[in-house]
Design goal:
Bound molecules: biotin
Order of helices and strands: HHHEEHEHEEHEEEEHHHEEEEE
CATH superfamily of the largest domain: Bira Bifunctional Protein, Domain 2
Largest sheet: 7 strands, mixed
Distance between the termini: 45 Å
Number of domains: 3
Shape: elongated
CATH class of the largest domain: Alpha Beta
Structural class: alpha+beta
Mean pLDDT: 94
Number of helices: 9
Oligomer: single chain
Helix content: 25-40%
Radius of gyration: 21 Å
Strand order of the largest sheet: 3-4-5-9-8-7-6
Number of strands: 14
Length: 326
C-alpha cells in the first residue's frame, strides 16, 4: 500500500483527505495514519492537517521499493524491485535470482557494490549512497545473436531519463556509454545465459554516476557525474523510474522486429560519435574514420579515411574520439 499511497499523494496538487485514502485502499483511517507515520519516519515530508488530509511535500533521496514503484508507469519492468544496502555485484545477485526462476522485469539496486564489474573485466566502483547501481532481469523470446542490442536500448533509456529528470543534454558514445559534456556518466554491462538458439535470461547491469563528486586520478578525464554538471544533488529514484518507463516502451518496439530498425534514428540522434572523427582499435589494429551512426543491428557504420566502409561490432572494439574520450 505504501507505494500506492505515495503515488496518490505525489500526483495530487493539493491535500488528499483521509476518507478518500481509506476508500481507495479499503483500509481504516488508523491504517492510513500508520502508513503516513512510517513514511514520515523514513524521511518523507508529508503535511497532515485536520479536516483537510495529507499533502506530499518532499521525498528523501532513498532507493526503496516503495519510492521506485510509486514513480513507475510500467506494466512489469521494475515492479518486482529489491533494494540492497551492500552486495558484491547487482549483476551477480540477479543471475542467482534468475536461476531460481525470478520473473522478467525484476530489478535489483544496491547502495554499494563491493565487487562491481565493468566491461572487459574492469572494476566498477559504486561508493555508498551516491550513485545508481542496478541490474534488470529480462527473458526475451529472441535469438541470442540479437540480445546484445538490448544494451543499446538501455543506453537510450538512461539518456532519456537523464534528459527528462535533469534537463542535461545526455548523449550516447557508441555502443552504450551515456555521456554528458564529454564525460562518461553511465556504463552498462549485459550478461546472459543462453542455449544455442534460446535465451534463458539476460541481465542488464547499469551504473549511473549521480551524486559522486570526486573520481580517482586515472578516471578524471573520462568520468563525470550528474552532480558535477548540475552543481547540486539530484534524486536517484526518479531517474531509475524514468529509465524503466522508457526501457519498457523501447523493449516493446524492439521485440516486434528483433532489431533496431524502428529505433536507430532515435539512437543516432543521440550518438555523440556521429559526424565526428573516430579512432577504432580492433584486435591490435587501429584506424581512423568517420561515422553517421548505427545500422539496424546496432553495428557502427564507419567510413575509413581510405574511403572503405566497414561495420564495427561491439565487443572487443574500442572507439574513441580523435582528440579524447568522445
Ligand atoms: C562499463 O564498464 O562501462 C560497464 C559498467 C557497468 C556497471 C554496472 S553497476 C550495476 C551492475 N553491477 C555490476 O557489477 N556492474 C553493473
Amino acid at each position: 500500500m505504501k507505494s500506492e499511497l505515495l503515488k496518490v499523494l505525489r500526483q495530487a496538487d493539493d491535500y488528499v483527505s483521509g476518507q478518500q485514502l481509506c476508500s481507495r485502499f479499503g483500509v481504516s483511517r488508523t491504517a492510513v495514519w500508520k502508513a503516513i507515520r512510517q513514511l514520515q519516519e523514513a524521511g518523507y515530508e508529508i503535511d497532515a492537517v485536520n479536516n483537510r488530509g495529507y499533502r506530499f511535500l518532499s521525498a528523501p533521496d532513498l532507493l526503496t521499493p516503495e519510492e521506485i514503484r510509486s514513480r513507475l508507469h510500467t506494466g512489469f519492468m521494475g515492479q518486482n524491485c529489491i533494494c540492497l544496502e551492500s552486495v558484491d555485484s547487482t549483476n551477480n545477485y540477479v543471475k542467482k535470482l534468475a536461476e531460481d526462476g525470478a520473473e522478467e522485469g525484476t530489478l535489483v539496486l544496491a547502495e554499494e557494490q563491493t565487487g562491481g564489474k565493468g566491461r572487459r573485466g574492469r572494476v566498477w566502483e559504486t561508493p555508498k549512497g551516491k550513485n545508481i547501481a542496478m541490474s534488470l532481469l529480462l527473458r526475451p523470446k529472441i535469438h541470442p545473436a540479437h540480445a546484445s542490442q538490448l544494451t543499446l536500448l538501455m543506453a537510450m533509456a538512461v539518456g532519456e531519463a537523464i534528459r527528462s529528470c535533469t534537463g542535461l543534454e545526455a548523449g550516447i558514445k557508441w555502443p552504450n556509454d551515456v555521456v554528458v559534456n564529454g564525460r562518461k556518466i553511465c556504463g552498462i554491462l549485459t550478461e546472459m545465459n543462453t542455449e544455442v538458439d534460446y535465451i534463458n535470461y539476460v541481465v542488464i547491469g547499469t551504473g549511473i554516476n549521480v551524486n559522486q563528486q570526486e573520481f580517482p586520478e586515472e578516471l578524471r578525464e573520462i568520468a563525470g557525474s550528474l552532480r558535477q554538471n548540475l552543481g547540486k544533488e539530484t534524486g536517484r529514484a526518479a531517474i531509475v523510474a524514468a529509465g524503466m518507463d522508457e526501457l519498457e516502451r523501447l523493449y516493446d518496439i524492439f521485440r516486434k522486429t528483433e532489431d533496431l530498425s524502428a529505433l536507430k534514428d532515435d539512437y543516432n540522434r543521440c550518438c555523440v560519435n556521429r559526424g565526428h572523427g573516430i579512432r577504432v582499435m580492433e584486435r591490435g589494429e587501429a584506424y581512423t574514420g568517420t561515422t553517421e551512426g548505427i545500422n539496424d543491428h546496432g553495428e557502427l557504420v564507419v567510413r575509413k579515411d581510405s574511403g572503405e566502409e566497414v561495420l564495427v561490432y561491439a565487443g572487443e572494439v574500442s572507439v574513441r574520439g580523435l582528440y579524447g574520450y568522445t
